Amino acid sequence: MTNHWGLDKPIVIAHDFGGAVTLHPRLLHGCALERYVLMNVDATRSWGADFFNHLGKHVATFQGLPPNIHGAIVDNYFKGALVNDLSDTDFTFHKRD
């Protein structure tokens, strides 16, 4: 990682699966880091894998969903990943037209 960009000791901030990706050079290759911040790291099999496998088998069905149903699925999927609940005003996604 550091050799690729010519960095001596980079600062790395990693989130979700990015944490697993950056753990590889740090733990297996001893990559030196100035600072290393991991946030909400998912280093195991993805908690949404079953959903995405199902989605991949039924793409056309999901593409044809009405915007309100699509929005409800997206909202609930992401809310399922939260440790602490967010208020409805803090948790909004742009809905498809």
What does the model show?
Helix content is 45%, strand content 10%. The protein has helices spanning 2-5, 17-29, 49-57, 59-63, 67-79; strands spanning 11-15, 35-39. The mean pLDDT is 78. It folds into two domains: 2-39, no CATH class; 48-97, no CATH class. The protein has a two-stranded parallel ribbon with strand order 1-2. Strand 1, helix 2 (17-29) and strand 2 (35-39) form a beta-alpha-beta unit.
One letter per element, helices H and strands E, the order comes to HEHEHHH
The proportion of residues in beta strands is 5-15%
For the terminal residues, how far apart are their CA atoms? Answer: 41 Å
Structural class: mainly alpha
Nearest-integer average pLDDT: 78
The domain count comes to 2
Outline the biggest β-sheet: 2 strands, parallel
Radius of gyration: 18 Å
Give the overall form: elongated
Strand order of the largest sheet: 1-2
Helix segment tally: 5
Please provide the count of β strands.
2
Helix content: 40-55%
Give start-end ranges of low-pLDDT stretches. none
Quick summary:
The chain has helices at residues 2-5, 17-29, 49-57, 59-63, 67-79, and strands spanning 11-15, 35-39. By secondary structure, the protein is mainly alpha-helical. Strand 1, helix 2 (17-29) and strand 2 (35-39) form a beta-alpha-beta unit.
Itemize the secondary structure elements and their pairings.
Blueprint (H helix, E strand, L loop, with lengths): L1 H4 L5 E5 L1 H13 L5 E5 L9 H9 L1 H5 L3 H13 L18
Parallel strand pairs: 1-2
